[in-house]
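From: lab user (bench 3)
To: helpdesk
Subject: output format question, protein + manganese (II) ion

Hello, I'm new to running complex predictions and I'm not sure whether the block I got back is the full result or only part of it. Here's what I submitted:
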Amino acid sequence: MDIKLFKNDLPEEFLNNIQSVAIDTEAMGLCPYRDRLCLAQFCKGDNISYLVQFDCFCKSYNICKLLTNKNVIKIFHFARFDVMMLYKYLGVMTENIYCTKIASRLVRTYTDKHSLKELCKSLLNIELAKTETCTDWGNLNLTEEQLKYAGEDVVYLHKLKEKLDILLIRENRTEVAQKCFDFLSTRIYFDLIVSQEYDIFKH
Ligand code: MN
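Helpdesk reply: Thanks, we reran it on our side. This is the complete output you should expect:
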């Protein structure tokens, strides 16, 4: 895996001839109002991770253009968090979302293990280290380990999508998966306006 590091935005060339992009984010924590977005990682499925480190949120023109482009599929693992953070900090709602965690929950109903590590292991036979989960992403000089960990979170998402798409077709759940992906922006709206788990479908 190759890693390229940028400040605040992707280079314009990254957007050329792009059809799909895997995206992940790292923040100071899990609370959108307390914990700022520190890093966003992007991969076009070619084993190169583009890491963008933020020290300001008003210079990400190419990222915003990419996120709002309806013709480009954005592949996430647990899109609910990443899309929320990108919306909160960059001010744009991501269009055309695919979430490997939702796809996995819809087809791998024989297990409750749907982490990225677990999916890479069972669908791709790849072991992720996952050692830097609790780390200071606000660090201005990210360590080699942090860069590698952050990069690895996006390089396998295209391959996972391929495998999960086959399972979605086999189980006849492609359409319901798409409806779940399309509903994410509404779900995120509630995540941002209410502080705790708020389920409008509850009795
Ligand atoms: Mn990550």
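A quick orientation on your result: The chain has seven helices and six strands. Let us know if anything else is unclear.
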